[in-house]
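chain below, 717 aa
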Amino acid sequence: MKYIIILFCFSTLLYALYVVLVNVLKRFSYAVNRLFSFIGLLTAGMISCLLMPFFISNIGITEVTRWYFALIIIINQAFFHYTQIFPRWEKKSPLFIVISAIPGVIAFLLTVVSNDIILSASFDGIHIWFVYGQFIMLYLVVFVFYIIGTFFTLYYKVRRLENTSFRYQLFYVFMGNHVGALIILISFIILPYVFKRFEYHSLGITLAALLLLYINNYAISDERYLNFKEFYLKILYYGIVLVFTVIPTYWILANSYRYFMAGGQIPAVAVSLLNFVYLVFFTRIIQPYVEKLIKREYAGLEKRFNEFIQALSQVEEFEGDPTYWDRFFTTTMDSLEYLFNVSSASFVMYNEAEKAYILSHTIGQQPVIKRISADDSLVQLCQIVKTTIHQSLFYTDETIKPYDDVLTLVKNNSIEVILPCFDQSDKIIGIIFIGPQKKGRPYTFNEIEFMELYRVKFNNALVNSLQIEEVKSKQVGEHDNLVVSAIKNSIIPRQMPYIDHIRISSFFMNNSHLGGEFFNAKVLHKNALAFLVSDCSYSGVDAAVLALEIYAAFESLSPIYDTPEKIMQLLNWVVCTSRFTERYATSFCFTFNSETLSLKYINAAFNPLIIYEIHNDSFIELDTKGIPIGIEKDFIYESKEYGIKGPCIGCIYSNGITGAVNQMGQPYSIGRIKDLMRLHSNESPALIIRRISSDIDTYTGNTAVKEDISIIIFRIE
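prediction:
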């Protein structure tokens, strides 16, 4: 028992210090995080009081116990104040907070400086035994006051919080906190005060403190993306796995030992084999079933979404048919009811003639919004956010909160989720409005995630259909090379974006009507930039169309796709489910973070990224193992990270560079590019690109270059 108490105390102490560190270093700008870091610090002090008697033999147990009880009452009070100011966007009443703090402060001081709460205490080597003072009832009244205050404050907010979606999450916080409160009441009041049982006091308080810290630290981690249902299910899953692996294994070993001590003979191999058989049985049969049961909501969504993908693929076979667009919207929009159980949804599409977004398709109740002007604040908000917007974000996201008029519009028209769609020039071409869930509950976090996937797929299919339709209408009767050229001209960037500490310049030679190369950079947010280069091989229209699909998917990236893994997994999924081509594309993707000055990169069978480190005059190649996108849908791409150690120049190039030969048939060497990078290391990427372009022209002379050439140079300071 002694070692179990020490283990629990140490675990809670370390986690309390972790809570303090995280909330001070990462989230200290918000009052609720500052208060919770204070709670974590107080909890660390309280747990230290329980630990000290185990390690300091001559310590004053009575004084330590008084501090222990004083910290308990002040932690209880701080939790009450925490519920008063949580969530952070809600209005507070400072006067009520100050008044409600007075009883706790008095009880704290009375506990520390007098013997009226704790008269005396002793330690038997495992437990602290204490004798209450004459005013213990006053202490308990204050303690219960804060427990009940916490209960009713959370209950009120669960019932009255304006952010209906967050109420759903707050309910789970409410339930989790009161499981912890129940453990405290049992171990702190009922067992010691009613039944005179002190031996479970330390264990109960420690367990409750760990539970409350864990739940509420998650609750204030990021209020925009809380998913408490999945959070609790994960805890339950790991708890089941822990119980059903540790306890039976321990039981087998313990009983084998008792049998041996009683004089019995049991082979060690038999004990090991029994344990092995049980663990294999549990991990291969029971554990997968439990995991499947816990993840059934996500699995159901995934199954329905895959069926939607298949249905969309079948509709895409009618491309060019007069009924195509009717089939398209019926399959995409009407499927929302089956996918997410929505009660209503509508789609408004941009009309160039009217300079407005006009209602195009609807399901369920007829929407009030049938026309939105191009300069409406809703359109401006979608242009800023560029991803799925659910109603809760209007309260929790600092970017969205200023758009009160849009929130009013959303509430008045029973809109729960907004899905913006963008064309290849990053202009909004349509907006999907999704109404309430049929059962009246808010959409779950998993449903919101799948809505984002739905938005990407819908956006990609819509843009590709419009683009192909436009390209076909412009190139009727023309040769395939005109189609390829039109697509390449529409997707190759004229200018590369930039953020702090990095500048990018590019060079593209359009030499082949069969090529399908694509590269681009995208600013994810002010401190992050993503870059992608792809080679879709030389297959004419198929290659160009595949490049167009990759371009459309990359351009529609929302800020949540902030790592190469997320970007490559999305692009691989888009290409694998493409209705236009069954080809693949070699690719290289990296993200640059201007705060940490680091590159994260993934290579999908493309050429490695060359980095010239100026300070030590050396070249390195950044490379990973990965197959081209579009081959295996379930392939897991893994990135590597490169920390910038000083000014450096990066270069990435397509295979077309080796197709540039001189009059003697000798291919252009990558070493020439390295020499130019070293020779002109003090110049900007634009000037280095010009040097390389001029050098290629000089090298090839009158020899025709038959393949496309893409070269990208960037400089990081």
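The radius of gyration is 32 Å. DSSP finds 21 helices and 18 strands in the chain.
thats it, cya
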